[in-house]
Amino acid sequence: MANIQKITVLGSGIMGHGIAQISAMAGFDVILRDIDKKFLDSAMNKIKWSLDKLVEKQKITQVDSESIFNRIKPIVEIKEALVGADLIIEAVPEDLVLKKKVYQEIDENSDTRSIYASNTSTLPITEISSLTSRPNKFIGLHFFNPPQLMKLVEVIPGKSTDELTKNVGLDFVKRVGKVPILCGKDVPGFIVNRIFIPLVHEAAFCLDRDGPTKTQIDSSVKFRMSFPMGIFELADYTGLDVIHKATLEMYSRDKKVIFPHHLIKDLYVEGKFGKKTGSGFYSYTADQYERVSLSEEDSRIYDPIKILSVALNNASWLITNKVCSVEDLETALRLGMGLKRPLFSTGAEFGINTVVETLKDLEKQFGDFYKPDEYLMLIQN
């Protein structure tokens, strides 16, 4: 990492300006690039607001704030933005056509020694790296929203990523004060989204098949599965536009990853993206994020065993396929999804045998998506 000094972040949206801020806070010189000055002005204002909040909370001094802010230079011209960049972090929208255009520009204008990184949350790193002239110097760095607060970063090497690039990615994440979790394989959804996105669909199926209310499902997920909030509430917070697009990308690459429910697509088509639009699974009125009213009493009405079983099955798939260890999985879910208790501990409380039998029953009724993974079969009581 001694040679990594200058970072260029491409894209100044929520993720891009957040990554730029934490990089500058770690002492790196940062170029923040976008296609229009108005986007950069907005991003820099948001960074200033964030730093002011840290000063208010006495996390940093005013002198620190000014120094950090001055380490970030907003630039529109792509060629100028890439000059001397040691690490280029792409944080543009999840559109492969757009990313292809961006990487063509990077290839044409960057130094041959520059390392490429993508903040994609769902697109395969191997696939994106193939759009470039240097797939061996390409790494996935999946920061979580908002980067200033979330500690997890999934580090995903592609098939051609060399050892040096992998180590630079891991070291950079540590330098910016985050916890890197290495994905042993470049699979759709990586680790956290491999578990989270299918759960939103499964919860929708539970609405249809079992007839509970959304708040009964969410209460059971929160209080009995130790989630930070209900699954529908978490989906609204994340954004149903994000979840729908992630679903399409993951499902297009592996049909066994997700069993799609039409409700997610329906809400997306209706423009009901969740909190950001005022309506999703729930309706919202306040400008600030408002919590859905969930209760332990409601949590006793609905048994979340089907949702838990799907979560454990996908988690087991990750372990069987050597994407990550159980320990890394639990760390990723704690830091990336806010689980207050290890997923497999919750599974043990409900009974792994019960989980396996639930999956077998669902498999008989609805197909191969629910087939119990071999790791689950192995750890049955």
Please explain how this structure is put together.
The protein has 381 residues and is an alpha/beta fold. The protein has helices at 14-25, 37-56, 62-70, 78-82, 96-109, 125-129, 163-175, 192-210, 214-224, 231-238, 240-253, 262-269, 296-299, 305-320, 326-336, 343-350, 352-366, 374-378; strands at residues 6-10, 29-33, 72-75, 87-90, 115-118, 138-143, 152-157, 179-182. It has two domains: 6-182, NAD(P)-binding Rossmann-like Domain (Rossmann fold), CATH 3.40.50; 192-378, N-(1-d-carboxylethyl)-l-norvaline Dehydrogenase, domain 2 (Orthogonal Bundle). It is built from 18 helices and eight strands. An eight-stranded mixed β-sheet has the order 3-2-1-4-5-6-7-8. β7 (152-157), α7 (163-175) and β8 form a beta-alpha-beta unit. The longest helix has 20 residues, at 37-56. It is globular and about 60 Å long. It starts with 5 loop residues before the first strand and ends with a helix.
How many strand elements?
8
Helix/strand/pairing class, anyone? alpha/beta
Q: Main sheet: which strands, in order across?
A: 3-2-1-4-5-6-7-8
Overall geometry? globular
Largest sheet properties: 8 strands, mixed
The portion of residues assigned to helices is 40-55%
CA radius of gyration: 21 Å
Low-confidence stretches: none
Helix tally equals 18
From the coordinates shown, what is the CATH architecture of the largest domain?
Orthogonal Bundle
The count of domains is 2
In sequence order, what are the helices and strands, one letter per element? EHEHHEHEHEHEEHEHHHHHHHHHHH
